[in-house]
Amino acid sequence: MSAKRSSINRPPTPDVDRDRENQEPTLQEIINIKMIESGEKERLKELLRERLIECGWRDEMKSLCRKKGRNNVTVDDLVHVITPKGRASVPDPVKAELLQRIRSFLASTAT
After folding, report:
1. CA–CA gap between residue 58 and residue 90 (Å, rounded)
2. How many CB atoms lie within 10 A of CB 80?
3. Comparing C-alpha atoms, which of 79, 77, 76 is closest to residue 87?
4. Using CA atoms, how far apart are residues 79 and 74, in angstroms rounded to an integer?
5. How far apart are CA 30 and CA 105, in angstroms?
6. What is the distance between the alpha carbons of residues 70 and 50, in angstroms, rounded to a whole number?
7. Which residues lie below 8 Å from residue 72, measured CB to CB, with a gap of 6+?
8. pLDDT digits (tens, 9 = 90+) for 6-50
9. CB under 8 Å to 64, separation ≥6 — which residues?
10. 94 in Cβ contact with 52 (< 8 Å)
11. Could you tell me the sign of the dihedral formed by the alpha carbons of 84, 90, 91, 93, in that order?
12. Cβ-based neighbour number of residue 69 at 10 Å
């Protein structure tokens, strides 16, 4: 089994984007790199997991998957149906907490 995990619903990102070889990284890319290098991205992902479990979101998604998955469906089909519902149902306080943590991270790295 490969140590590298890839997304189910999209192909892996190519190592080199030929159209952007000589361009500077975007602000979003720079922030992403800083978050990965500092370990903040993993901490935020863990916080998100904890909050989604605490509020029952994870159990709701499991239940939806079980209902949709009773028929002979593929994982891709299930992801296609569940992803929009899952994203839309993340509680606002969870989103607000993550946004605040991201803002705090950006403020601390800007100084």
Report:
1. 10
2. 13
3. 79
4. 9
5. 13
6. 28
7. none
8. 455 565 666 555 565 678 999 899 999 999 999 999 999 999 999
9. 82, 85
10. yes
11. negative
12. 15
- Tokens 């619903």 map to which residue? 9
Q: What is the DSSP letter of 20?
A: G
Residues across the chain: 111
Backbone angles phi, psi at 62, to 5 degrees: -60, -45
Q: How far is CA 19 from CA 12, 14, 33, 57, in A?
A: 17, 12, 20, 39
Distance CA 53, CA 38 (A): 25
- Residue for token pair 């946004």: 99
> What is the per-residue pLDDT for 33?
94
What is this structure's pTM? Answer: 0.71
For residue 52, CA distances in Å to 70, 93, 100 come to 24, 11, 17
